[in-house]
Amino acid sequence: MQARFASLFAAFVAAVMIGAPAPALAETMSWLMTNAHPRAVVVELVSQTRSHRWPGDGKVYLLEKGERKSVPIECNGGEKICYAAWVNGNDRVTWGIGPDGDKACSDCCSLCAQSATEEIVIGQ
Question: For the domain that residue 41 is a member of, what is the CATH number?
């Protein structure tokens, strides 16, 4: 009886392990941001897959007029990431999904992939 129980338990554990999702692998990708607007803009990257933002902790990336910045981020492979941008000090002028993440966009999101670079030009 004890051997049968051990056998059933081992089969149960194996079934659970096979059905368990594989953990997401951390990837490093870059976002190349260019400010083409005549005023400074701020940018935030927002995961659509989980509750996460870059740079995080209530901070944003600041780009002065004409500035270009490359930002590497750690993300989960296949994670959907969108940018939110707005004029510094005026969140009524926005690009991407906007500061509240509620704007529709057709080309402001990308999937996280190892060594990928996503290029965005804000204010065009």
Answer: 2.60.40
Token pair, residue 85, equals 């941008």
Range of the domain at 63: 24-122
> pTM to 2 decimals?
0.79
Q: In this structure, is residue 72 part of a structural domain?
A: yes
| Cα of 120 vs its chain's centroid, Å | 14
Does the residue 41 lie in any domain? yes
Q: What is the count of structural domains for the chain? A: 1
Residue 31 belongs to what H/E stretch? Answer: strand 26-35
User: What is the rounded distance in angstroms from the CA atom of residue 64 to the CA atom of residue 51?
Assistant: 28
Where residue 16 falls among pLDDT bands split at 50, 70, 90? very low
Alpha-carbon gap, residue 36 to 66, rounded angstroms: 6
Calculate ∠ Cα 56-57-60, nearest 5°: 55
